[in-house]
Design a protein that fits this description.
39% strand; mainly beta; four-stranded mixed β-sheet; 145 residues; 5% helix
Length: 145
């Protein structure tokens, strides 16, 4: 089963679905870093200390040891704050969006649980999770103020 991307509008929707497993680190594991390398997204979490070989041929690569030191080649781009947005019309998550051009990486979202109708929404950088048991990447959208 492939990794899927889930987007929630706010904490309220997120907690309704994950209410039974909020304290379980296998269901809600914070993402340490995200890297874009070509058409691949590298996800870094700190789930275990066992040495294992990540599948670099996959579009979504999960690094479980908390770093990518053994596999980095220098052309990876670290995804920083305000470099992720959700396109509601295309149902794509865009990394490094650019004005009047395509984003550096665009990925289809498996499920979006939101009531927003805007064309674009910013992703809350502090609330990114990886659901290890269901193989999901979870993002929450920023609240407009």
């Amino acid at each position: 089963m492939a990794t899927s991307i889930y987007i929630f509008e706010n904490d309220e929707f997120f907690e309704k679905i994950y209410k039974d497993v909020m304290e379980n680190p296998l269901y809600i594991m914070p993402i340490i870093d995200l890297y874009v390398k070509g058409d691949h997204l590298w996800i870094v979490t700190n789930s275990n200390n066992q040495k294992e070989q990540p599948r670099l041929s996959n579009t979504l690569v999960h690094f479980r040891q908390g770093n990518i030191k053994g596999w980095e080649q220098g052309d990876e781009k670290l995804v920083k704050h305000d470099k992720i947005r959700y396109n509601h019309r295309k149902e794509h998550l865009e990394f490094f969006p650019r004005m009047l051009r395509k984003p550096l990486l665009s990925m289809r979202v498996g499920r979006c649980i939101t009531n927003k109708n805007d064309k674009y929404s910013k992703v809350n950088y502090d609330k990114r999770f990886y659901d290890f048991t269901n193989n999901r990447i979870i993002f929450l959208l920023e609240d407009k103020k």
